[in-house]
Structures are given as structure tokens and as C-alpha cells.
Specification:
By secondary structure, the chain is of the alpha+beta class. It has one domain: Alpha-ketoglutarate-dependent dioxygenase AlkB-like (Jelly Rolls), CATH 2.60.120.590. It binds N-(carboxycarbonyl)-S-(naphthalen-2-ylmethyl)-L-cysteine and fe (iii) ion. Fe (iii) ion binds next to loops.
Length: about 200
């Protein structure tokens, strides 16, 4: 896609049954919720996390937290199937030894979107981010190192994995409003997993 950005079409397909079963367990312990940004806007994307650290936002700012602020409990453990998939994908993309400690889980229902942003709440930008798309397809916006760089558009489909490291790690990116549809396995939604080294 660009220097440091590798798209692995369909890489997660063989894992889809394990992934969806694990997702149900996670969401039962740490339900999806619409978080509020520091500016006071409720996000259209609903989120939860698994792993030793989870990304959260509220009126006080963005951070990684070992606990779910809704329940006070630690986030559910990262399932082995998640970790192995992320490590294999990073390896295939040329980022050896990736060991994520956080997995942010985004749920898009029709109309949900994510505006252009950089991911800079992690400690170590030398580690890549691995993203797994499941369910309905989305238009991913892939910009440059300046917010004003005009983004290119990529269609991400069920089972696609993208790995972002090196010079692509700090590019601006976002997701266009999700078009309505029905996916055979996941129904009327798109789920995106992003594996990160937060700490
Ligand atoms: C490029 N999620 O959670 S995944 C996010 O589809 C996020 O839910 C989008 O942006 C989603 O922060 C996009 C692809 C992605 C994720 C992280 C990146 C692309 C990235 C970090 C740096 C550069
Ligand atoms: Fe992001």
C-alpha cells in the first residue's frame, strides 16, 4: 500500500470461527460502548478491548488502562487465537518478533465512521500495528504524515489484515461511514481488531 504498510488479503479467513467465538466471550465480559472524546463528542464506533492494556477515551483524554473503567475489572485476556494471528501477520509483513499487549476492538454499525487521526498513544512507535477486518466491507482512508495530505481509499473486506509499521506507523488514517449491508457471519456490522504494543 505504501512504504511500511502491507495488506494481507484474506489472511484471517481460516481463523474466522475462532475469532468470532472469542469475540462473543470478550463482549460478554467487557461490553461494547460508545466512548466520549476529550472534546465531549460521543464516538459513532463502539469499542471494547482485550489484553493487558486497553485504549480508552473520556473527557480527561486518551490513555491505555489495564482496567475497564465501566466495570473496574481488568480487560479480558487476549485469546491465544488473537495473539497467534497478529504475530503471524506481522511476521509475514516483515516485522519479526511483534508481541502485542493490547487489542482494541472497534464495532461499526451502518453510518459509523472514524475521522482522520494518528495513533500516538503507544509508548513505542517502532512496533507496528496489525489490523484485522471482519464482517461488512469498509472504505479505509490512508493519508500522509500531515493531516492535510489527501487520503487514498482502500476497500477492506472480511478477513483482510493490514500491518502498519516503519514509515507508515504515524500516517493519518480513518474510515468512511459504513454502508449498510448484511454479512453472512457477522450480520449488519463491521468489526476491526487492532493489535498494538502499548507499553
Ligand atoms: C495506519 N481503526 O482503531 S484499522 C484505530 O478500521 C483505527 O477501525 C480503523 O484507526 C478501523 O485506531 C483502521 C487500520 C489502521 C489502524 C492503525 C493504524 C491503520 C493504521 C496506525 C497507523 C497507521
Ligand atoms: Fe487509528
Amino acid at each position: 500500500m505504501a512504504d511500511g504498510a502491507v495488506l494481507l488479503r484474506g489472511f484471517a479467513k481460516p481463523f474466522e470461527a475462532d475469532l468470532t467465538a472469542a469475540l462473543r466471550d470478550i463482549a460478554a465480559q467487557a461490553p461494547f460502548r460508545h466512548m466520549v472524546t476529550p472534546g465531549g463528542h460521543q464516538m459513532s464506533v463502539a469499542m471494547t478491548n482485550c489484553g493487558g492494556a486497553g485504549w480508552v477515551t473520556d473527557r480527561t483524554g486518551y490513555r491505555y488502562d489495564a482496567r475497564d473503567p465501566e466495570t473496574g475489572k481488568p480487560w479480558p485476556a487476549m485469546p491465544l487465537s488473537f495473539r497467534e494471528l497478529a504475530e503471524q501477520a506481522a511476521d509475514r509483513a516483515g516485522f519479526r518478533g511483534f508481541s502485542p499487549d493490547a487489542c482494541l476492538i472497534n464495532r461499526y454499525q451502518p453510518g459509523a465512521r472514524m475521522s482522520l487521526h494518528q495513533d500516538r498513544d503507544e509508548n513505542d512507535f517502532s512496533a507496528p500495528i496489525v489490523s484485522v477486518s471482519l464482517g461488512l466491507p469498509a472504505i479505509f482512508l490512508f493519508g500522509g504524515l500531515k493531516r492535510s495530505d489527501r487520503p487514498r481509499r482502500f476497500r477492506l473486506e472480511h478477513g483482510d489484515i493490514a500491518v502498519w509499521g516503519g514509515p507508515a506507523r504515524l500516517v493519518f488514517h480513518g474510515v468512511a461511514p459504513l454502508a449498510d449491508g448484511e454479512h453472512g457471519l457477522l450480520g449488519r456490522q463491521r468489526i476491526n481488531l487492532t493489535f498494538r504494543k502499548a507499553r
